[in-house]
Amino acid sequence: MSQLNDDQQIRHLANLELLARQVVEGFITGLHQSPFHGFSVEFAEHRLYNNGESVKNIDWKLLARTDKLFVKQFEEETNLRCYLLLDTSSSMNFPDKGIDKLQFSIYAIASLMYLFKKQRDAFGLCLFSDKIDWMSPVKSASTHLFYLYAELEKLYSNPKTNTQTNITNVLHHVAEQIHQRSLVIIFSDMLENNLDSEKMQALFAAIQHLKFNKHEVVIFNVNDKQKEQNFDFDNRPHHFIDIESGEEVKVHPGKIRHAYQTSLQHYKRELELKCAQYHIDIVDAAIQDGYYNILKSYLIKRNSMV
Fold first, then answer.
1. How far apart are CA 137 and CA 155, in angstroms?
2. Is the C or the N end of the chain the one with fewer CB within 10 Å?
């Protein structure tokens, strides 16, 4: 099954649960046909069926092959605690055509939650901009999954405008509120700190706060590869408006493209080096690349933790 990148295809799906199921089941199908087939995505092992117990976990396909009754032996009800932090600041509303960074992140998070549920992992959601706007408890129940889907759907319908980011303060607050070792997954375009070494140092001090409390951290750096990385704009004067601050500038893309890309590459290289220094996984999450690399990155991290 191909990845769901097409905007029209996604919009035809009724809700996040249907999208997440389709993405995850397609991903798992591909996973079983790839070098990553060893990852456990549903259960730990089989054991022989004991007379009198429930038949709901019998593996009927295995019965057909072996003529014996085996039961899927699931791992502990909760294997891992995962917190999903979603940047809802106005810069995430870019681009203004097709799927923007916020919508892409919502779809990716919905898919991760569906995968968490399949693996009996507990999960919570935190929405933030310049502060924590909303934060859920961590649970693994189906009712909790649909409760969080409802919150994501509300955000999808009513994205924030004229809102800036303060990811540094948010991470300090999150570090204070999480009291058990967890996997903290951040979805953000990381633009607050762009080209500002002082802000970057403050950001990594906040991430160190999480690491000091024994949490693992994965950053999905959400971006529009075409516009934000390649600066692919028509070769004519453009009027750009900062989505967060409202600041305006008129420039000719062809005249600044090289300087812009050089500065962006320097920033990304510094960000990646800092992440490597603090043993933080940072994953390039271009909205054009779909969701499978996000799910695979989570599985790799998860298998190194449990």
1. 18
2. N
Q: In the Cβ-directed half-sphere of 219, how many Cα atoms lie within 13 Å?
A: 24
pLDDT digits (tens, 9 = 90+) for 136-195: 999 999 999 999 999 999 999 999 888 989 999 999 999 999 989 999 999 999 987 555
Which tokens go with 100? 């923007």
